[in-house]
């Protein structure tokens, strides 16, 4: 096969990343601190809320989730509620703290945390003797979760929200950016995300005081002393100034990337418009603005004449085009299946019938034509 691979989502450089990285070398700021680290944090603060939040950039989104749990006081023996349908990185840090997860189903409008199942879970855990310490809510594929309904439940029981916005930089709800809705927010700049620092993440907090606390933990929890003195457990989670240089360049093209991802979503929307067996995952109403990090489709088995998401995936794969089933829910994962789960089979059914399609901001007209040809053949459309 000599056709080049079309990826689901791959790094997309804007151009000025090299300039910032070069500066890091020229000034010898090749360390987990420096002007790019500070600069990227300021860029993000401005982008997210014109400076009303404090951002700390870290070595990964997973590190940010872990530090978020630390800051929320999650500790050994605690329970933490987590959206079941997500990437495992939303859950693993619960275990780093010696706590355990309680999984909750999704709803069909946003594919994210179901507020009804969430409340049922909280009530039952309290009845069983333990109030959950935090709620991890995710904006899957860049579609915001039901912000108001989830916030109302969380506030009713006074449980903080850790907002996993790893896939949702550039998304917003009623004009407010994702990453700023949680008691603590998390971003990821992994290679496949909407912007990348090759690997990295950020923690978003309401106050500078909390940010100082986060940076304290992220830099080995050093007490104020001339020698190395420690009164708390620390982590080495700070972002490198070299990586932050890539991030500063990427911030200059973030809105372009969002536009290009949304154009891919429009492309699939137009293609599947007259195919009743397929729905393209789309925000429920205009309050929601999605970056459509990944465009995802759902196959209706009753209308698909035996076609499944696997039929589509394999047809694309045969042409060297990557696609992937939706996140397999955490309560179905071998490592997590013994933990409590609340809900029905929404996440499970989405997983069975859903597929993520190539969505990168760097896909070319030729790439789109190749995808169009394969899908046209499969769905019996004139190419
Ligand atoms: C990518 C991702 C993470 C983890 O971010 P990393 O930077 O890869 O550690 C966490 N949660 C979700 C939902 C993600 O998609």
TrEMBL record:
Keywords: Pyridoxal phosphate. It comes from the Bacteria. CDD domains: AHBA_syn. GO terms for biological process: polysaccharide biosynthetic process. InterPro entries: DegT/StrS_aminotransferase (IPR000653), PyrdxlP-dep_Trfase (IPR015424), PyrdxlP-dep_Trfase_major (IPR015421), PyrdxlP-dep_Trfase_small (IPR015422). The modification N6-(pyridoxal phosphate)lysine is found at residue 193. It holds the Pfam family DegT_DnrJ_EryC1. Coiled coil: none annotated. The active site is at 193 (proton acceptor). GO terms for molecular function: pyridoxal phosphate binding; transaminase activity. The keyword Oxidoreductase does not apply. Belongs to the DegT/DnrJ/EryC1 family. This is dTDP-4-amino-4,6-dideoxygalactose transaminase. It comes from Flavobacterium xueshanense.
């Amino acid at each position: 096969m000599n056709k080049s691979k079309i990826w689901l989502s791959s790094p997309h450089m804007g151009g000025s990343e090299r300039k910032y990285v070069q500066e890091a070398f020229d000034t010898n700021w090749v360390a987990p601190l420096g002007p790019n680290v500070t600069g990227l944090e300021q860029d993000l603060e401005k982008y997210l809320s014109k400076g009303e939040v404090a951002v700390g950039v870290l070595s990964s989104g997973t590190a940010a989730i872990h530090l978020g749990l630390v800051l929320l006081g999650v500790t050994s023996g605690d329970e933490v509620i987590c959206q079941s349908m997500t990437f495992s990185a939303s859950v693993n840090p619960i275990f780093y703290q010696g706590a355990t997860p309680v999984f909750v189903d999704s709803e069909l409008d946003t594919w994210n945390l179901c507020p009804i199942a969430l409340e049922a879970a909280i009530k039952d855990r309290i009845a069983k003797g333990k109030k959950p310490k935090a709620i991890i809510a995710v904006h899957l594929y860049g579609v915001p979760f039901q912000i108001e309904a989830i916030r109302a439940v969380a506030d009713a029981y006074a449980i903080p929200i850790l907002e996993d916005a790893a896939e949702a930089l550039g998304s917003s709800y009623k004009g407010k950016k994702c990453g700023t809705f949680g008691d603590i927010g998390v971003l990821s700049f992994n290679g496949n995300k909407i912007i990348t620092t090759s690997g990295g993440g950020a923690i978003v907090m309401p106050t500078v005081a909390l940010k100082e606390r986060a940076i304290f933990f992220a830099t080995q929890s050093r007490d104020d002393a001339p020698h190395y003195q420690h009164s708390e457990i620390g982590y080495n989670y700070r972002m490198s100034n070299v990586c932050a240089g890539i991030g500063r360049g990427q911030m200059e093209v973030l809105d372009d990337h969002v536009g290009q991802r949304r154009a891919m979503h429009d492309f699939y929307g137009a293609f599947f418009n007259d195919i009743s067996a397929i729905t393209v995952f789309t925000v429920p109403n205009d309050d929601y603005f999605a970056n459509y990090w990944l465009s995802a489709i759902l196959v209706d088995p009753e209308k698909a004449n035996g076609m499944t998401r696997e039929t589509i995936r394999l047809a694309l794969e045969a042409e060297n085009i990557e696609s992937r089933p939706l996140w397999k829910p955490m309560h179905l994962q071998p490592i997590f299946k013994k933990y409590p789960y609340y809900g029905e089979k929404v996440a499970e059914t989405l997983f069975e019938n859903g597929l993520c399609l190539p969505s990168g901001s760097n896909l070319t007209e030729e790439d789109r034509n190749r995808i169009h040809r394969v899908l046209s053949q499969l769905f019996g459309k004139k190419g």
